[in-house]
Amino acid sequence: GQQLNQSPQSMFIQEGEDVSMNCTSSSIFNTWLWYKQDPGEGPVLLIALYKAGELTSNGRLTAQFGITRKDSFLNISASIPSDVGIYFCAGQKGAGNNRKLIWGLGTSLAVNP
Amino acid sequence: NAGVTQTPKFRILKIGQSMTLQCTQDMNHNYMYWYRQDPGMGLKLIYYSVGAGITDKGEVPNGYNVSRSTTEDFPLRLELAAPSQTSVYFCASLGTPTDTQYFGPGTRLTVL
């Protein structure tokens, strides 16, 4: 099935460092979503992006909807130990009953205190 | 609101057994989804529903069945469990106008 190219696959950083991850696709999306999954839990929405070029922040998190509508990035500033988890991007295409969500394979983040 | 709830949290099945994974949402969402997540992999869509009485296949529907008799409930049925169905199963519902999916806590299934 179609999937997004999400990179990096994993990251191991020191507490306080900034983090950047991105997703790219050959397809155009009308919505980009970033989720975080803690161990043993379901994914939780972090940021939703609805317009090309949109830049949105949620605390220390910032995400952008690429101008071509084929990519998105997520930045985390001043990382802390509770940022540990797997981050997924998801692109949505279609509308109404035909809307479909395409998922990246995730970026696993480890933070060394 | 409790959001999306799933039961059971864990289950071990023998090959050939059947079971139903329950999913309930109390947000009055029309759209609901079932995903499976294998270790180190992303989410794969099994089935989805756009409203009560309407279901459709996702990316990996073989070996599963669903029904949607009410807006709140979207159970996933495994008729003849196989080891390849060992996975973590997530149910999600789609909220509007934000158009974002809300996930349940997952059911961890092992088939031996």
Description:
The complex is a heterodimer of chains A (113) and B (112). Helix content of chain A is 0%, strand content 54%. With 113 residues, chain A is an all-beta fold. In chain A, 37% of the residues are buried. Chain B has strands at 4-7, 10-13, 19-25, 31-37, 43-51, 54-57, 64-66, 76-78, 87-95, 100-103, 107-111. In chain B, the strands form 2 sheets. In chain B, strands 2, 4, 5, 6, 9, 10 and 11 form a 7-stranded mixed beta sheet that branches. In chain B, strand 9 and strand 10 (100-103) form a beta hairpin. Chain A binds chain B through residues 1, 3, 31, 33, 35, 40-45, 48, 50, 88, 90, 92, 97, 99, 101, 103-106, and chain B through 4, 31, 33, 40-45, 50, 59-60, 90, 92, 94, 98-106.
The number of strands of chain A is: 11
Please tell me how large the radius of gyration of chain A is. Answer: 14 Å
Task: Specify the helix fraction band of chain A.
Answer: under 10%
Sheet-strand content of chain B, in percent, reads over 45%
Query: Which structural category do the helix and sheet elements of chain A fall into?
Result: mainly beta
Distance between the termini of chain A: 38 Å
Helix content of chain B: under 10%
Summarize the structure.
The complex is a heterodimer of chains A (113) and B (112). In chain A, 0% of the residues lie in helices and 54% in strands.
Features:
heterodimer, A: 113 residues, mainly beta, 6-stranded mixed beta sheet, 5-stranded antiparallel beta sheet, B: 112 residues, 7-stranded mixed beta sheet, 4-stranded antiparallel beta sheet, 11 strands, 53% strand
Tell me the layout of helices and strands:
The complex is a heterodimer of chains A (113) and B (112).
Chain A: E1 5-7, E2 10-14, E3 19-24, E4 31-37, E5 44-49, E6 55-58, E7 61-65, E8 71-76, E9 85-93, E10 100-103, E11 107-112
Parallel strand pairs in A: 2-11
Antiparallel strand pairs in A: 1-3, 3-8, 4-5, 4-9, 6-7, 7-8, 9-10, 9-11
Chain B: E1 4-7, E2 10-13, E3 19-25, E4 31-37, E5 43-51, E6 54-57, E7 64-66, E8 76-78, E9 87-95, E10 100-103, E11 107-111
